[in-house]
Amino acid sequence: MYFPPGVRISQYAARTAMAPHSHDAPSLSMVVGGSFLERVGNRERDYARGQIAYLPAGLVHSQRFGASGARQLILAARPSWLEHLSCGGAPLAHSPHRNSPAFQALADRLLLEMSRDDGFSALACDGILLEIVAAFGRTCPTQTQRDGPPRWLRAVRDFAHHNALAPPDMQAIARVAGRHEVHVAREFRRYYGASLGTYMRRLRVEHAAQLLRHEDMSLIDVALECGFSSHPHLCRAFKAVYRVTPSYYRRHAS
Fold first, then answer.
1. What is the mean pLDDT of the chain?
2. CB neighbours of 138 closer than 8 A, spacing ≥ 6?
């Protein structure tokens, strides 16, 4: 496996804990498996697959890992990345963190390229790392978003996760939120960095990727299972997220 400079994979055993500690250098971390609870100061944050977080140097934190343990991609934060994030308004001193299917897809693409380890792996991985930093910066909370989305918007996100494979129903989503559809759409994009439709489409693609990794289903069955009308429909959506076709992903996913 090819490891880009400053990138490592950390694995944590189930139901273990790490005592309060800090690191000498800043980093970005991406959860690619399992879950854990992190305490930073007097704040507790739940981490699961798709979570990305920035950890400043010297920030004291501790973790408790879940029943499946956890697996993370740790990216040493390059000075050029931090410069771009700071210039874009990311509140790096507050250790911002975000969760999105987009980060799941980017992490999967990075792992896929690392596993290929050919003459183009370094170039491909550098490109994906830049995409990760840009995506993180675009979805990073602003001054007014630092405390996270309101409870009603978190309920909308949970509804989207539980109903991602069903036809989108904006009226049902608005009822869950208790807000007007236009207000729901605007605030969802502001906090989560994507429209509801794009977010749910990414969830479908992520579910398709899981089936491709773990199930022996035909591509058309995967498409229909994930709410796509046809194999070409799945292929277009899948390539928009993973930059490869479903069949290529299945052949190369570890």
1. 89
2. 88, 193
Residue 144 pLDDT grade (very low, low, confident, very high; cuts 50, 70, 90): very low
Pull the structure tokens for residue 103. 């980060």
Tokens of 167: 């036809």
Helix axis angle, 151-162 to 181-192, nearest 10°: 90
Average pLDDT score over residue span 207-216 = 91
What's the pLDDT score for residue 231?
A: 92
Distance between CA atoms of 253 and 210, rounded to whole angstroms? 10
**Band (141; pLDDT cuts 50, 70, 90):** low
Which stretch of DSSP H or E encloses residue 251? helix 246-252
Q: Which domains does the chain have, with CATH numbers?
A: 7-143 (2.60.120.280), 151-252 (1.10.10.60)
Q: Which of 101, 178, 181, 92 is nearest to 140 (CA)?
A: 92
Q: Is there a contact between 195 and 210 (Cβ–Cβ < 8 Å)?
A: no
How much is the pLDDT for 254?
Answer: 56
To which H or E segment does residue 233 belong?
helix 231-242
65 φ, ψ to 5°? -95, 150
The DSSP code sequence of 99-156 is E-HHHHHHHHHHHHHHHH-STTHHHHHHHHHHHHHHHHHHHS--GGGTT---HHHHHH
| Alpha helices per DSSP H over 180-226 | 181-192, 196-214, 219-225
Three-point CA angle 179, 183, 189, nearest 5°: 125
pLDDT digits (tens, 9 = 90+) for 178-187: 988 888 888 8
Q: How far is CA 111 from CA 20, 31, 55, 63, 193, in A?
A: 29, 12, 21, 24, 23
| Res. 62: pLDDT tops 70 | yes
